[in-house]
């Protein structure tokens, strides 16, 4: 993983957290300041730039103060630049597709927003196809836009159409947990059977296991560990896994 999620995960152990409400001014200052979900920069009447919270939640920042964001367990996903999402194609849109990412509005995905894509060589997505993408544009007055390649390397890096497998849903908090390399669940399941997974920050998880029993077991474990569900910790989850027919 690269980009926004990688740096925020690596900084989790050195984070200062404070609860914030919409409209509050945030003391975010850095020469390379990057704002994540729940924050936006605006100008005051005297022309000064200030950072304002747009949602209620826990204000967090990286160890060096360059990246700031608000974590909340809201029900509806609010797109933010550089976040990873799992989307469902809902229709054509000019030279691209409209994609449902669980937000208030569908996102746009251009046919050229794939590694190596050209006007003669482009993906052939159908309605219902699943894609793993990165949010390239997110603005309150515009529909979000997606890309299926890494912003730095311009390579696919795991992004693109997701073929086969099963789409599971979880809370936004659970999806953030699954993206944390220190979180136990996916490494534990991967030690029990082969498992491919693509986790979106929008509360969607694509799973591809060897057979149906393994897929069902994975979904049930995610539901059991979800803070909005069972909320099981590592010990309880392993005991729960032993009761499953896998």
Report on the structure:
It is built from five helices and 16 strands. It has three domains: 68 residues, RNA polymerase II/Efflux pump adaptor protein, barrel-sandwich hybrid domain (OB fold (Dihydrolipoamide Acetyltransferase, E2P)); 79 residues, Beta Barrel (OB fold (Dihydrolipoamide Acetyltransferase, E2P)); 77 residues, K Homology domain, type 1 (Ribosomal Protein S8, Chain: A, domain 1), CATH 3.30.1370. α4 runs antiparallel to α5. The protein has a five-stranded mixed β-barrel with strand order 8-9-10-12-11. Strands 1-6-7-3 form a four-stranded mixed sheet, with no helix packed on it. β15 and β16 form a beta hairpin. The N terminus is likely disordered. The chain is of the alpha+beta class. Keywords: Cytoplasm, Exosome, Nucleus, RNA-binding, rRNA processing. It comes from Dentipellis fragilis.
Which terms summarize this structure?
3 domains, OB fold (Dihydrolipoamide Acetyltransferase, E2P), 35% strand, single chain, Ribosomal Protein S8, Chain: A, domain 1, alpha+beta, disordered N terminus, 4-stranded mixed sheet, 246 residues
